[in-house]
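Justification of computing resources. Each target in the renewal requires a structure prediction run like the one illustrated here; the chain below, 419 residues long, is used simply to show the kind of job we budget for.
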Amino acid sequence: MTALLFVLFFVFMLLGVPVALAIGASTLLALQAEGVPLMVVTQQMFQGINSFALVAVPMFILAGDLMAQGKVSEKLVDFADALFGFLKGGLSIVSVLAGMFFAAISGSGAATTAAVGSTLVPELRKKGYEPASAASLIAASGTIGVVIPPSVPMIIYAVIAQQSVSQLFLSGFLPGLAMGMGLATIAIVQAYRRNYPRGTAFSAATIWRTLKSASWGLATPVIILGGIFSGIFTPSEAAVVAVNYALLVSLFVYRDLSLGDVYRILIRSAITTSVIMLVIATSAVLSWTLSSWQVPGAIAQAVLSLSTDPYVIMLLVVAVILLTGVFIETASALIILTPVLLPLVTQLGIDPIHFGLIIVVGLAIGMITPPVAINLYVASSVTQLPLERITRAILPYLLGLVSVLLLVVYVPILLGLSG
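Resulting structure tokens:
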């Protein structure tokens, strides 16, 4: 029956059926063939989304959308430019740094790419930067959006793996910083090879002025994460605080959104949330089915029979994560892979928090690997460049991010993780 389930799933995917429906329909048909009472399906769907931690998902999505549509991203870019714009190819570093700043606000790779791209792309073109390379760097920087907390994929993983959201958030800082440093290093090398110009002259006064202007946006992660780590509120409560703070800043401080804009953002965020929740609900049925058929244990034993070397096994796990990210959207891949791979890595002595970072970083890389490469599509839309050009230019940054992933896997102590 397991073979039937996976065959049906891939057939539905090849036919272009949305992921949530493909998961639900294939599992439903497999259970029907097994003779399992279908009441189980509705029970497990409800159970899958009946978690207080998941309240944070729609709230962080809404907070990110509110910040992305307003002037927050513009202020953050100005501050990043004041810090590093004076360097040769400084706008490349600004792209990465602005992506890291916005990552600490949005929790979304696509939102980070859109916010930073729409602000920086005109300036990059004006300064003579190679358009496809600049767009690919912004798309690659967007992957940091789901690694530096707050992070929607981390919340989903925490619910599935029954781990602490706060611990995952705390563990995400150094890997996210490593991703940013890797991308910035590659960007600097390219800047010297292509003789990119220097940007804004260094000025302490400019730094102070832009810092004051960006302080409302920079305060967001301090309030959210400071509140979580100090125990003032839970991650779910922090998400609600983030929404209220985003509304305050957008409506009354920068005054860059109208009530009509807020209404449209609410509708768009609700649609995004409904898609994610449907994926979680149908994947809960899939997870229950695989567990009841003891599939994760069988997979773990099969992989362990191939090699007793944990380094080789983890390389296989990384390959599976990266390959899945190529074809399946991040949240869906996370929900499908976690119940299957977690029992395997725990047998190797890998801490579940450490594995959470491995799978989140691995699937974040999938955001820039076609055909399912949401950040590339967003970058293409923002820059009006063909997807093919951006895809060719993404390769150096892709290799840099994969190198960071291997550091997370094999040298976790460098990034503050326990192996």
